[in-house]
TrEMBL record:
This is cyclic-guanylate-specific phosphodiesterase. The keyword Kinase applies. Gene3D superfamilies: 3.30.70.270, 3.40.50.2300, EAL domain (3.20.20.450), PAS domain (3.30.450.20). It comes from Marinobacter salinus. Its cofactor is Mg(2+). Transmembrane segments: none annotated. CDD domains: EAL, GGDEF, PAS. Its EC number is 3.1.4.52. One of its GO terms (molecular function) is cyclic-guanylate-specific phosphodiesterase activity. One of its GO terms (biological process) is phosphorelay signal transduction system. It catalyses: 3',3'-c-di-GMP + H2O = 5'-phosphoguanylyl(3'->5')guanosine + H(+). NCBIfam families: GGDEF, sensory_box.
Length: 724
């Protein structure tokens, strides 16, 4: 027995404290002596009033109570004791023998009844019996209380666990689940009990999750751990990530069956464990992972992920014998917009561009942001070049419409280089590099277009470095030459103009053509210096011829987009022209439509400035670029140069020639001069004459030649190439 377990210590056996109440002093005394002799701690109360007063101040385990007393009777004392000391047992010792009095006393809570006069032994036996019962009851209450406390403590600990705590039977039905399941997933523990845990597994994890407990080797030392997604309750259909650890239940230590929260299969609990919510960790991991492989601004795959996918696609293409395409996309005019409107607008533009580009591709394609305004696109399975061409056109067209950035309407274009596997590269690096090289060729040709990589574009890195070094030396050593190709009046056969075309007299490789070194000059920005040299030389040569009797002779010079886009373009050009005293009215600059459209506003301003100084403007390769006719009458344009490809088409019949017809008719309508390029045959010349195209240029009259040759021929009639 453990009396300290009670709130008010109970006096067991001989140490029990007994209150004896009677209005007869003699009887009171006898009773008290009898009990004291047995070792009880006895307090005497002479009458009911005294008894109530004692009960207010002292604790008793038992009261021996006379019923019939004046003023405050036994029933009143019982009522008072019930109030102030409900644990105190009562034995009625009374002369009252009526059934109703006895029954009333017992109903009011008396534990026994002894009739006066009493037999001392019987009385002591009754007292002992009642005290024994009392202490048993008390002990039971204590045990009960301890159990309840212990149960509450364990329940508190289990329910306060940050994890879901569960027990499952052999089939995987819940036997128990703590209330954490409600705050984490929204289920009531009672609704889960008896249900299979599959019920809360996310559909994607049902198979893996269901088999997780099937393994034979789950032991206390080798618990089963797995990560699964669990469904939350309700219509949100959200899932959260959990790390589950399941241990086997030892039937020796937990031999109980069934559910502890209602329902249940009645089977033995087989597993117990915890499910820890790791959603935040998983989301953080997913974010870190996303960040490592994606560009956060556009949310596109980054360079690393692109390379990874390309590597896989190449392996697959090799196995299946299929082709794949890599495109390198570089935005035109992005830098200007970014510098003018600020980086925030630049970022918005990149997002909007991404959005449009994404709409042009299929699910299996990979569009990535390679850096800055560069994107790469992988088309993992194409049939032929035509497939890639269609996509490239789609991408270019998708960016044609203006972008609205706040109050600003801006235009961007895109230059696309395409490398097809396996022709344009066997491995990942080659393909990306070659697509990049092809893209540079688009840029050099006036941007906003696409080109397929071809071997002629490639100069490997070592060659590239050598070539760059050689080109710098060429500028120092004055190895660049300016050749001139005549522009001839088709009716008089007289030379009306000369197009300056650069050549490089390489000390080892001989005469090099622009295609061999201009892309590199553009890339390395040597184009500026190179163009200055060409212009200086051409102004000197042609200026001399003008002064020596050919006052109307026109000098046509090609300009690189990089030159035109330079903020000090007009100033620099005019400085050189004036330095050579070259008449501005004899100078015609050739630019492509794409250069104009790249930055219509800026370029128009520059062209107007030049035109106001007398410089003529020619649109080179007309018909191959934007072909946005709108700018023609808004800009000070003097000449349209019909591209060679249209002139070549003349020989293939009427269909091929119809573009030339249209361009010439339009030029007449707009009162523009027209020069047909690439004229090689009589047939082409006749056709053009017939159309009223009065100026022609091409091998028919001869290729571009050095100044010395031109000098000799000037004034002569170059009827055929041989005479020029
Ligand atoms: N920025 C600068 N660009 C320049 C300069 N010099 C040349 N270029 C650009 O290089 C392109 C190629 O020039 P080139 O190899 O000299 O070819 C020119 C002619 O040789 C060629 N042509 C002329 N007639 C015919 C012909 O009958 N058939 C035929 N197959 N080819 C012919 O065409 C080129 C001239 O074309 P265009 O410029 O369109 O008038 C050249 O296109 C320039 O863009 C330079 O100094 N700076």
């Amino acid at each position: 027995m453990a009396p300290e377990l009670t709130d008010q210590p109970f006096s067991y056996g001989l140490t029990a404290r007994i209150l004896v109440v009677d209005d007869e002093p003699r009887l009171l005394n006898t009773l008290a002596s009898l009990l004291r002799d047995r070792g009880y701690e006895v307090t005497e109360a002479h009458g009911g009033e005294k008894a109530c007063a004692l009960a207010d101040t002292q604790h008793f385990d038992l009261a021996l109570l006379d019923l019939r007393m004046p003023d405050v009777d036994g029933f009143d004392v019982m009522a008072h004791l019930t109030n102030v000391q409900p644990d105190c047992g009562v034995i009625v010792v009374s002369g009252e023998s009526s059934f109703s009095a006895v029954s009333r006393a017992l109903r009011r809570g008396a534990l026994d009844y002894i009739r006066k006069p009493f037999d001392p032994e019987e009385l002591l036996a009754t007292v002992e019996g009642v005290i024994g019962k009392q202490s048993l009851l008390k002990a039971h209450e204590n045990v009960q209380m301890r159990l309840e406390k212990s149960e509450a403590l364990h329940r508190y600990i289990v329910n306060s666990s940050p994890d879901i705590v569960f027990m499952l039977d052999d089939d995987g039905h819940f036997c128990f689940v703590n209330s954490k399941v409600e705050s984490l997933l929204g289920y009531q523990p009672s609704e889960l009990c008896g249900r299979h845990f599959r019920h809360i597994l996310d559909d994607r994890d049902v198979t893996r999750g269901s088999y997780a407990l099937k393994g034979p080797n789950i032991t206390a030392d080798n618990p089963r751990t797995l990560e699964v997604r669990l469904k939350t309750r309700g219509s949100r259909r959200a899932t959260r990530h959990f790390e589950i650890t399941a241990f086997p239940v030892d039937p020796q230590t937990w031999p109980h069956t069934g559910a502890t929260q209602g329902g249940g299969s009645g089977k033995l609990a087989r597993y117990y464990g915890t499910a820890r919510d790791v959603t935040e960790r998983k989301e953080a991991e997913a974010f870190i992972n996303f960040q490592a492989y994606h560009d956060l601004l556009t949310r596109l795959p980054n360079r690393a992920l692109f390379k990874d996918r390309l590597e896989l696609a190449i392996t697959h293409a090799r196995r299946s014998g299929q082709k794949l395409a890599v495109m390198f996309l570089d935005l035109d005019r992005f830098k200007v917009i970014n510098d003018t409107l600020g980086h925030a607008m630049g970022d918005r533009l990149l997002q909007a561009v991404t959005h449009r580009l994404e709409k042009c591709i299929r699910k299996g394609d990979t569009l990535s942001r390679f850096g800055g305004d560069e994107f790469t696109l992988l088309l993992p399975s194409i049939h032929n070049h035509e497939d890639a061409r269609q996509i490239a056109k789609k991408l270019i067209n998708s960016l044609r419409a203006p972008f609205q950035l706040g109050d600003h309407e801006v235009f961007v274009g895109v230059s696309i280089g395409i490398a097809i596997h396996p022709e344009a590269g066997e491995n990942m690096d080659q393909l990306i590099q070659n697509a990049d090289i092809a893209m540079y060729h688009v840029k050099a040709k006036g941007k906003d277009g696409y080109r397929f990589y071809s071997d002629s574009m490639n100069i490997n890195t070592a060659n590239r470095l050598n070539l760059e070094r050689d080109l710098r030396l060429a500028l120092e050593r004055d190895e660049l030459r300016v050749f001139y190709q005549p522009q001839v009046c088709s009716t008089t056969n007289r030379v009306v103009g000369l197009e300056a075309l650069v050549r490089w007299q390489h000390p080892e490789r001989g005469l090099l053509y622009p295609r061999d070194f201009l892309p590199l000059a553009e890339e390395t920005k040597l184009i500026g210096l190179l163009s200055e040299r060409v212009l200086d030389q051409a102004c000197q040569d042609v200026g001399r011829w003008i002064r020596s009797g050919h006052p109307d002779l026109r000098l046509a010079v090609n300009l690189s987009p990089i030159q035109v886009e330079h903020p000090r373009f007009v100033e620099t050009l005019m400085q050189r022209v004036e330095a050579h005293n070259f008449p501005a009215g004899n100078l015609e600059i050739e630019i492509t439509e794409n250069v104009i459209m790249n930055d219509l506003e800026q370029i128009s301003q520059k062209l107007r400035e030049l035109a106001s100084k007398g410089v003529r403007i020619a649109i080179d390769d007309f018909g191959t670029g934007y072909s946005s006719l709108n700018y023609l009458h808004r800009l000070p344009i003097h000449t349209l140069k019909v591209d060679q490809s249209f002139v070549k088409a003349i020989r293939s019949g009427e269909d091929g020639a119809c573009i030339v017809n249209a361009i010439v008719a339009m030029a007449h309508g707009l009162k523009l001069e027209i020069v047909a390029e690439g004229v090689e045959t009589d047939e082409q010349l006749e056709y053009l004459r017939g159309l009223g195209c009065h100026q022609v240029q091409g091998f028919f009259y001869g290729p571009a030649r050095p100044a010395a040759d031109i000098c000799k021929s000037l004034g002569q009639t170059p009827a055929r190439a041989a005479s020029f």
